[in-house]
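Input sequence (91 aa), recorded before submission:
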Amino acid sequence: MTRASRDATALAADVAHAGRLGFTGKLCVHPRQLQEVAAGFAPTEDELRWARTVLAAGDSVSVVEGRMVDRRVQERARRILAATGAPEAER
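Predicted structure, token format:
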């Protein structure tokens, strides 16, 4: 394993950068990287709270936290909750 693949700080920065670019995953070259990468792409508690609030507003166009919520926003909320791996009823 190369030194670069053991650098947890560099990996965390790379995962964060990939997330800002819209990526939802990353190729790992060593099993040691799996936990850091999975944690870096997992939804935050704030994202989960937002997604639950959006979906609780219903299926029609509405306003949540001062912003318009339409079908595309609802789909994003569903994707965020799906990323937890929890069954639909537990999300």
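Checked by second reader. The first helix runs from residue 8 to 20.
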